[in-house]
Every structure is written in structure tokens, then in C-alpha cells.
Amino acid sequence: MPRVSILLTCYNHLRHLKVAIDCIRSQTYADYEIVALDDGSTDGTREWLTQLQKDEPSLPLTLYFNEKNLGTYGTLNRGIEVSTGELIAEFNDDDVWAPTKLEKQVAMLDANSQIGLVHTAGYFIDDDGNELKQNPLGFPWPKTSTGDVLLELIEHNKIIASSVLVRRACFETVGNFNTSYFGSGDWEMWYRIAERYHVGHLDEPLTLYRVHAGSASHYTDRVSDDDRRIREWMVPRIQAYEGRGWSAATRRRILAHGWACIATNRVWLGDANGGRQAYVESLKVMPWRFKSALRYLATFLPRRTFRSLN
């Protein structure tokens, strides 16, 4: 039984899929299986994978073709179910791994039993594999410290999906990915894992995230609605973390920030009244939060104007 299961999620990226397979072949850690999960590709991906399996019978490759489109998180849940490894790596078919990625992640997990998930540094690339020097998605490559990172994950998702290696025990403890999310189901999962386990970070560029016209991150309103939903789920949980060692001031700050983010997303999506209510909640927690007060007033402006200010 292989120790690492690589969940290779595929959807209409045949050109980049070939690069992803080469990245796996090049790994210095060789105790793995590849579970290729195609979610309804129409560009020849299924045919190419089927031929690859025939041409290279020694490649530890298993194929699963969804009969209907399950989406990212339904596909990952299926991969977790059918894979066999003690450790699970997520690898999107258009991203890239450095050769030592798995080796270094396995070593970190072996060295610290408290760590449930290890992720890596990296950078963004374009369709041709060239490094993008700016922040093409509006933020720099996210990172965390190593240890209890829950406080860091409350503000934003700071873990790139293709960079993770996770103990199977984490999924057995916290459950499956939430399939109702469009693009933030990974953030919710990392958060649930961080509630119970430490998180490790390798500050080396071992993962490259490809940004192109088909990247899910460009669907702004759907991503914004995900952001609203996950924060509405998080805020009540924050209130229950009294025993986590955070100071009262820290809890106030993150609660005020959480409510303000909920408010902004609600207004952005056209719910000005709901936004005002959430800004009021932010100000109840931290009355001197000037930014929340200003944005509350901005909710009375036209929606387009509000968007331009945020």
C-alpha cells in the first residue's frame, strides 16, 4: 500500500495535465499512488489518461471518471474515499510541483505528530509557465507560521490547495469537504483541520499556481458569496474560543473584523440592509473601529459606488 495518495483533479486542462504528470514522475519521494479524478472533461483528457494507463502499466495510476459533474469538492471527497494512502496530497491538473515537494512534506509530518497538514510557499505562473511577478489574483502568495494557525486562517485563506499534504486521519476526524461551496470549500476544510491540529509550513517555492482565463478565482460574485457564507459560519465559532489562549483584545479584534467582512460581502452582493446590520455588530464589539463606521455610511451610496470604494 503506497504511503501517499495524490488526488489529481482534472477538468479540461489537457495541455497542463501532461506537465502535472511529469511533475509527479519527477518527485524524489516515490512511495505514492496517483488517483486521477476527472470531473467531466471534454478536451480529450479522459482519452489521454486512459492511453497513458495502457502505455505505462508500471505507473501507479488509477482512473475515476465522474458520470456527472460533481464540482471540486465532490470530486475530492470521492478521491479521499477511493484512495488508500496514509497521507493525501491535492494536485490540480494545471498546477506545478517542484521535485522535492513530497519528500520535504513527508519529512515534516514524520518529525512532528501534532502537525496534520503541511503546505508550501510558491509563486503564480501564467499559461506558459512563466512566473507572474505581480499579484495576479489581488494578493501575494499566502503563507502561515508553523503550529496553531487558526488565528491566521480566520482573516483569509492562507493555504493554496495544490500545496497541501494532509494526514488521512484529519479527514476521518473533521469529515468531508463541504460540497455546497463554489471555491471556498478548501478554506473551510483547512480551518476545520486547524481547529484540531497544528499546521506546518515549508517556506520554499515548491508549488506553482497557474493563473489563466479559466481560473475559478475570476468568478468574483460567486467567490464573494462564498466569502460571506464562510465568515457567517466562522463568527459564531470565534466566540467559543475562550480557552484557546487568545487575549480578550484579540478576540474583539477578530470578531469586529469578521462582522465587517460579512457586511462588505453582503453589500457587494446587493444586500445593503444586511450589510448595515453586520457593520453594527462589528461596531458593538469594537465601537472605535473607524473603518466599520465609514463603510456603514457608505452603504447608503449606490452599490456601484460602494464597490468602487472597497
Provide a descriptive summary of the structure in words.
The protein is an alpha/beta fold. It has two domains: 4-218, Spore Coat Polysaccharide Biosynthesis Protein SpsA, Chain A, CATH 3.90.550.10; 220-309, Serine Threonine Protein Phosphatase 5, Tetratricopeptide repeat (Alpha Horseshoe), CATH 1.25.40. Helix content is 45%, strand content 17%. The chain is built from twelve helices and eight strands. It has helices spanning 14-25, 45-55, 71-82, 101-111, 150-155, 168-174, 185-196, 220-238, 248-268, 272-285, 290-298, 303-309, and strands at 4-10, 32-38, 61-65, 87-92, 96-97, 115-125, 165-167, 198-210. Helix 6 packs across helix 7. The longest helix is centred in the last third of the chain and has 21 residues, at 248-268. It is globular and about 65 Å long. The relative contact order is 0.11. The model has no long low-confidence stretch (mean pLDDT 93).
Quick synopsis:
The chain is α/β, with parallel strands linked by helices.
